[in-house]
C-alpha cells in the first residue's frame, strides 16, 4: 500500500517543480488599492526573482520586454526574472493588483525564476478561477506578516497559486502594432536601456540610428506611449525606486547612480513622475509590503 501511495505522489507532484529543488520561496506580496491616486512604478527589472500579478479591478496596459498588452480585472500577468516591465493605469487612479514576488522557482524545462517560456503569452485570463485566485492572494497577503506558522501557510498558498495560474489557457496575444514599428522601437529601447544613466538627448539617439529626431520620436511614442526622453526619465525613476526600497542609499547617492548630478532636480522629477517625493514613496511602499525585497 505504501508503495502505491509513493508512486501516486511521484506521478502527481514530480512534474510540478524540479525534483532537485524545493518549492519557490515567497519573498513578498504587495496590494495596490484600486482607485487611489496613481503612483507610477516605471520600467524596471529584478535580477533575482520573478513576479505574478493578479488584476482584481481596473484597466490598463502591461509593458513587458518589447511588447505592450491591454489588461483588465481577472487577468494574470507573468514576469520572468530579468525582464523589463511596467503596469500602467488607463486613468489617473490606480489599478487594483496583488503582486507576488518569488525566488528559487524551477519549473521543468525553464530557466530559474521563469514562470512561462519565452515568447508565450505574458497575460492570461483567469476566467472562472478568478474569485478563488483572488481569495488566495488576499489570504496570503494577510498571513505573510504574522507569526512563523502563518508565514508557512502563506508560502503554501503562493506555491499553489503558481501551479494554478501556470495551467491557464495560453491564447496568442495580438500585438497592438506592426512588426516593423515594433522592431524599430525595440532597437531604440534597447539602446536607451543600455545608456539611460548617461547624458542622453534626442539628438544623440537620432544620430545613433541615422534618422531624424522627428521620426525617432514619432515611432517610439507610437509604440510605447512615451517620447524617447520621457522613457529615459522613466527608466531612471524606475531604477531609483528599486534603490529606494531595497537599499540604504541616500536620495543624493541614488540621484547620481541613475544619472542626475543635481539632487533637487532629481527630487522634482521623481515627484512629478511618481506623485510623491522619494522618501515618502519609500515609506508608503514599505508600509504596504508583506515580506521583504531582496534586491
Keywords:
alpha+beta, about 300 residues, about 20% strand, three-stranded antiparallel beta sheet, single chain, six-stranded antiparallel beta sheet
Structure description:
The protein has 295 residues and is an alpha+beta fold. 44% of the residues lie in helices and 18% in strands. It is built from ten helices and nine strands. It has a six-stranded antiparallel beta sheet. It has a three-stranded antiparallel beta sheet with strand order 4-3-6, with no helix packed on it. β3 and β4 form a beta hairpin. α5 crosses α6 and α7 packs antiparallel against α8. The protein is globular, with a radius of gyration of 20 Å. About 4% of the residues have low confidence.
Helix coverage percent of residues?
A: 40-55%
Mean pLDDT: 86
Q: Please count the beta strands (DSSP E, at least 2 residues each).
A: 9
User: What's the helix count?
Assistant: 10
H and E order: HEEEEEEEEHHHHHHHHHE
Radius of gyration based on Cα positions = 20 Å
What is the strand arrangement across the widest sheet? 8-5-2-7-1-9
Low-confidence stretches: 4-15
The termini sit apart by: 47 Å
Strand content: 15-25%
